[in-house]
Amino acid sequence: MPNGVRTNPSDPVTTRSDELWARAAGLVPAGTQTLAKGPAQYVRGLAPKYLQRGVGSHVWDVDGNEYLDFSMGVGPLSLGYAYPSVDDAIRAQLEDGITFSLMHPLEVEVAELVREVVPNAESVRFGKTGAEVTSAAVRLARAFTRREKVLCCGYHGWHDWYIAVTDRDAGIPRAVRELTFTLPYNDVGAALEAIDDATACVILEPVTFEAPRNGYLHELRRACDRVGALLVFDEMWTGFRIALGGAQERFGVRADLACFSKAVANGMPLSLLTGREDVMALLEKDVFFFSTFGGEALSLAAARATILEMREKHVPAQLATQGRFIKDAYNRLAREQGLDGTQCVGLDARTVVTFDATMGDPLVLKSFVQQELLRRGILWNGFHNLSFSHSDADVAHTLAAYRETLALLAQAIAAGEVRARLRGEPVEPVFRRTSHFHTKPQPAAARA
Ligand SMILES: Cc1ncc(COP(=O)(O)O)c(C=O)c1O
Question: Can you tell me the distance from the alpha carbon of 10 to that of 310, in angstroms, rounded to the nearest whole number?
Answer without folding.
Answer: 39
